[in-house]
Design brief:
- By secondary structure, this protein is an all-beta fold.
- The chain has no helices and 11 strands.
Length: about 120
């Protein structure tokens, strides 16, 4: 099992910055993928950014250049630095992880979500 706990959401004015953090715990050595997704009211959950333990990055186009993902493999944490925030970035942000298992299986986990609200 993998348990993810996010922190760092809140209210910020447009143009401001926030940093989200996520800590993973459970019975594993190292998570293959850690990252962030978000879901705005009335919309589907969408990718923000993911980072593999080998360093491969994947960002949503709308967030490139504004958001930066980083992780500490030793501590099993992943952070998301969000700059130049826009009102359309307002959403619940979810931490995500993927753990590869034997026989091509995998285990995905989600955090409980942290609310980010950007005021105009």
């Amino acid at each position: 099992q993998v348990h993810l706990v996010e922190s760092g959401g809140g209210l910020v004015q447009a143009g401001g910055s926030l940093r989200l953090s996520c800590a993973a715990s459970g019975s594993f050595f190292r998570l293959n993928v850690m990252g962030w997704y978000r879901q705005a009211p009335g919309k589907q959950r969408e990718l923000v950014a993911t980072l593999t333990n080998g360093g491969s990055l994947n960002y949503a186009d709308s967030m490139k250049g504004r958001f930066t993902i980083s992780r500490d493999n030793a501590k099993n944490t992943v952070d998301l630095q969000m700059n130049s925030l826009k009102p359309e970035d307002s959403a619940v942000y979810y931490c995500y992880s993927k753990l590869d298992l034997p026989a091509y299986r995998y285990l995905e986990a989600w955090g409980q979500g942290t609310l980010v609200t950007v005021s105009s």
